[in-house]
UniProtKB/TrEMBL annotation:
It comes from Stylophora pistillata (Smooth cauliflower coral). Pfam families: Pyridoxal_deC. This is L-tyrosine decarboxylase. GO terms for biological process: carboxylic acid metabolic process. Residues 1-26 are annotated as: Disordered. PANTHER family: PTHR42735, PYRIDOXAL PHOSPHATE-DEPENDENT DECARBOXYLASE FAMILY PROTEIN. One of its GO terms (molecular function) is carbon-carbon lyase activity. Its cofactor is pyridoxal 5'-phosphate. The modification N6-(pyridoxal phosphate)lysine is found at residue 458. The keyword Lyase applies. It comes from the Eukaryota.
Length: 973
């Protein structure tokens, strides 16, 4: 489904350089470094990013393998050195046993099977991956994980992992400091993931909310607690302190977090007992001890509490309120604005309603980067609202779900002097872009939240599982303690007492710690990585905004709208343009160097687009008001650009994305506004689907890379529209003249520029089910002479081309029935056989694009085949043009040897013939397009293994088919 480069006005009106074909996607950091950067200058801190990842092509494999084996050898040496005089168990005699040998072979066989299965995995490491919030994991994180995994340490307590438990404590302190907390008074620890952290945050907030009420009852009833009965507390809405035992129920349910946190220590001191003894006494009074029903009965609580969150909340909060026994109905959602951020005005109205009805608010959650809408909630406003309402008697904890957004704090954190990198001697042309002002303000307020979820395995580039939770006040975690003593270990540090989990992998802590130490939680470390990713996301956002031409039948709308109004084209200009025009003039088509030096344009880029580098958009056909049709188009894009198949990947997904749906939420204007921008009916509550393109890699900063992605997406959009709107028909495929050893043939689709349902260029590989059908086919080829053998789906079973080749999920169909003809089918030609054919591969599926205004300078063909046979299929550009199939005498040189050669040909590559013009030539007498390949030997240029530009010679063995008529034939009225 990879398409040739388009030459449209999306690149800012600049025509792309002709004659070079489609630039390689994966040359060595192509276009990321300026030519000046090839000097011996060592003061290039941005180059460090190159060591932090294995690389899309495993470029750092040698170093990684060396370091990995060093770690494994260190563990082996430790085993040998531990009580070295102990005898070995696995002896030479044991190895000679047949059962030992069989078991070894079984391990090897099953491991090989696993490795084959893993080839079906999603290639998160590739720059082509733009789906979920996941990408390649950092080399230090991987090495740390691998270094620890054989030690199998358990971080439940220090006795289970003396070294790795200490690592987790350090990681917790580092993450707390990263989000602005005081590492000496805060507390952080690792969990399996953000979902667990969110559950833990609600758990502790619930316990905190009801603690004072349980403590009040204990003070009144327990003789051991007579001393603290004079204990006073400060109420936000009272000027003078109040006795805890005389405070009202509502007042005790609305104390500020810090007041509650210090109660256990204060009361224990006044009672002259330790906190362990106090916990034992309170076991008969606390919510988490006696249960919800008993607690509510004792205190005559008839109103259920609530947890407040934006309507874009993660599903883990539903899990949290059900796990903690609060119930789904207690989760109160606040609508979001057009930017998918919590509407703070509605939040205040909602909270005032709770205050009026005396409904306890356990927690308000601020989402610091949604992983679908890429939005950061207005935390500053939420904090301000809490301050205001606390003076009126309503208080609650604030939890920041910063699973995705926390690491973005590194972008404005200064490094410690000891890890600061040297300043570059000249300006870097690895483009970076900082956070917009809204996000910066919100992240800087994280240190005022009570609890914060952080996910090192998201924007921290660490392997799973590595989530975390940070507590602003380390005393808050004491409200989760379920034991009076140690866990079942007796170590110094009992991490199993700190949260939901008991046993946990020490390897995860080691990986996160090593990544923190090597990369650094500051602007020159993780901040640099994320700044490059941010630049990528803003450029991709600009492409999505400008994707459609004015003459296109479709248009795109981003979920994050462009600002309204106009801005100056330059700081000193009186001319003002809208933002879309500004992007076309000042961004698209510019080089990295030009953008880096244009501080005004970079300042505009900083403020537009997604909050946290996830540009999203939807597509609609002009004048269409039907939401379902719009959603069907987006679903078709997702099906074609997703990797969900359990079959072995044919590497036919050129760009991997994901999708979601903007749903209707009470009082929220986001969906209504989005529908209005898409021209859709707002009369119903049907949600609108959109494409998600997460930019979580620092490699794609080149504008040429982005241009490639834009071309891929444009082709996917055109294909998707065809998938939804094309009429079913019969489709003809011209066959090559040779069946390979697997009973497979290569075919080229006989498309047409004028007929909507045939406006495609496609190359595919089909397999015969029957040996008899192969024999019949070969016999027909021998008798056909100059005529091609053509296969066409049955007239009684017309289909859309997409439905013919793919099923609803975008995967290849297993079997289709075809009629076979000698020559292109017509009313007078009868099929010589009907056969069941299996679709094995579709390397090219491109929609003709009317935005292609010019022919390429030189002719471009798809070179496709296998280890033994290679074919050229001409790529038509615009009306008029031609289709052509040529069999080469041998596989061209420069494709590598053995497996490499097979991979390149199996993948299919664009090959340019420099001596052949890109525009068609016409016979002066017949006025028809003539075959441009008059010779048998031609120079070709293409991109080979590892992005190498190959120039070699090909020999034509046979011209199988040439057509300059059917392709250009006008549609019949």
């Amino acid at each position: 489904m990879f398409n040739p480069r388009k030459k449209t006005s999306r690149n800012g009106g600049k025509e792309k350089k002709k004659g070079k074909g489609k630039p390689p996607m994966f040359t060595h950091r192509r276009g990321i470094f300026s030519k000046r950067d090839v000097s011996d200058d060592v003061t290039k801190p941005w180059a460090a990013v190159g060591t932090w990842f294995l690389g899309p092509k495993a470029e750092n494999a040698d170093v990684f393998i060396d370091l990995m084996f060093d770690s494994i050898r260190a563990h082996m040496d430790f085993r040998r050195g531990f009580y070295p005089c102990d005898p070995p168990y696995v002896t030479d005699e044991l190895r000679k046993a047949e059962s030992f040998k069989r078991s070894y072979e079984k391990i090897k066989t099953e491991l090989d099977n696993i490795q084959k299965d893993l080839y079906r995995s999603v290639p998160f490491f590739s720059t082509r991956y733009k789906g979920h919030v996941n990408w390649d994991t950092a080399v230090p994180a991987n090495l740390g994980y691998i270094a620890s995994i054989l030690w199998n340490q358990n971080n439940c307590a220090a006795e289970g992992g003396p070294a790795t438990t200490g690592y987790e404590v350090q990681v917790g302190e580092d993450l707390c400091e990263m989000v602005g907390l005081n590492r000496n008074t805060s507390l952080g620890h690792l969990v399996a993931g953000g979902s667990v952290a969110n559950v833990e945050a609600i758990w502790v907030a619930r316990n905190l909310k009801y603690y004072a009420l349980g403590l009040q009852e204990a003070l009144l009833k327990e003789e051991q607690l007579r001393g603290p009965r004079g204990y006073e507390i400060n109420l936000s809405h009272h000027e003078t302190p109040t006795l805890l035992i005389t405070a009202t129920q509502w007042e005790l349910l609305n104390l500020d977090t810090d007041t509650i946190i210090k109660m256990p220590a204060d009361v224990a001191t006044l009672a002259e007992i330790d906190q362990k003894a106090l916990r034992k006494i309170l076991a008969d009074y606390l919510y988490e001890s006696i249960g919800a029903q008993e607690f509510c009965n004792r205190h005559k609580l008839t109103t259920s509490p609530c947890v407040v969150v934006a309507s874009t909340y993660h599903v883990s909060f539903l899990k949290a309120v059900t796990i903690t026994g609060l119930g789904k109905d207690c989760l109160v959602t606040v609508p979001v604005d057009a930017n998918a951020r919590m509407n703070s005005q509605v939040l205040e109205i909602t909270l005032r309603e709770k205050l009026l009805k005396k409904i306890p608010v356990i927690s308000v959650i601020s989402i610091m980067g949604t992983t679908e809408e890429s939005a950061v909630d207005p935390l500053v406003d939420i904090l301000s609202i809490r301050t205001k309402l606390s003076q009126e008697g309503l208080n609650f904890s604030i939890h920041a779900d910063a699973a995705w957004g926390a690491y973005f704090s590194c972008m404005f954190r200064e490094p410690h002097v000891s890890v600061a990198m040297a300043s570059p001697a000249e300006e870097s042309f690895v483009p970076e872009l900082q956070l917009n002002s809204h996000v910066t303000d919100q992240l800087k307020a994280l240190n005022q939240c009570d609890t914060i979820t952080v996910d090192p395995h998201k924007s921290g580039f660490c392997p799973y599982p590595a989530g975390a939770i940070c507590y602003r006040n380390q005393g808050l975690n004491n409200f989760l303690s379920l034991t009076s003593g140690v866990v079942y270990y007796h170590g110094d540090i009992n991490l199993g007492d700190l949260g939901l989990e008991g046993s946990k992998p020490g390897a995860a802590a080691t990986g996160v710690l090593l990544a923190n130490r090597v990369i650094g939680l500051h602007k020159n470390g993780y901040g640099r990585i994320l700044a490059e990713c941010m630049f990528t996301s803003k450029i991709l956002y600009c492409y999505w905004v400008c994707m459609a031409e004015d003459t296109d039948d479709f248009f795109c709308e981003t979920t994050k709208p462009l600002p309204s109004g106009k801005i100056p084209v330059s700081p000193d200009s009186d001319e003002k343009v809208d933002y879309k025009t500004f992007i076309k003039r000042n961004v698209l088509g510019k080089s990295n160097e030009e953008l880096s030096q244009d501080k005004y344009t970079m300042s505009i880029l900083k403020e537009i687009g997604p909050d946290t580098m996830i540009p999203c958009f939807s597509v609609n056909i002009r004048e269409n008001k039907d939401v379902s049709q719009c959603n069907n188009i987006v679903s078709a894009i997702f099906n074609d650009l997703s990797h969900a198949s359990t079959e072995e990947s044919e590497q036919r997904v050129p760009m991997i994305v994901t999708s979601s749906t903007m749903q209707d939420h009470k009082y929220s204007l986001a969906l209504k506004k989005f529908k209005e921008r898409l021209g859709l009916s707002t009369d119903n509550k049907e949600g609108v689907k959109y494409v998600i393109t997460t930019c979580l890699d620092p490699w794609s900063t080149s504008l040429e890379f982005m241009d490639d992605f834009a071309d891929i997406m444009r082709n996917a959009i055109l294909n998707a529209i065809g998938t939804v709107t094309d009429k079913p028909d019969c489709h003809s495929f011209v066959c090559t003249d040779k069946v390979n050893e697997k009973n497979e043939i290569f075919v080229c689709y006989a498309g047409n520029f004028s007929q909507t349902q045939h406006r495609y260029f496609s190359v595919a590989r089909f397999k015969f089910h029957s040996e008899a059908d192969v024999a019949t086919f070969n016999d027909a080829v021998q008798k056909a002479g100059d005529q091609p053998v053509v296969m066409q789906n049955l007239k009684t079973e017309p289909k859309k081309l997409h439905d013919l080749l793919f099923n609803d999920s975008g995967e290849k169909r297993e079997t289709v029935k075809f009629d076979f003809f000698v020559g292109l089918p017509s009313g007078i030609i009868r099929p010589f056989m009907t056969a069941d054919m299996a679709i094995k591969d579709v390397p090219r599926y491109d929609h003709f694009d009317k935005a292609d205004e010019q022919y390429p300078e030189v002719a471009t063909y798809v070179m496709y085949g296998n280890l033994n046979d290679a074919y050229l299929f001409h790529i038509p550009t615009k009306d008029p043009d031609y289709l052509q199939i040529v069999r080469l005498a041998e596989v061209p040189k420069g494709l590598g040897d053995g497996g490499e050669k097979s991979v390149v040909l199996k993948q299919g590559v664009d090959a340019e013939l420099p001596r052949v013009p890109g525009s068609p030539t016409f016979d002066p007498q017949t006025k028809k397009i003539k075959d441009p390949l008059a010779d048998t030997k031609y120079y070709v240029e293409f991109v080979g293994i590892q992005g190498q530009e190959i120039k070699t010679t090909v020999m034509i063995q046979k011209k199988i088919w040439f057509d300059g008529d059917v392709l250009n034939k006008s549609a019949v009225a």
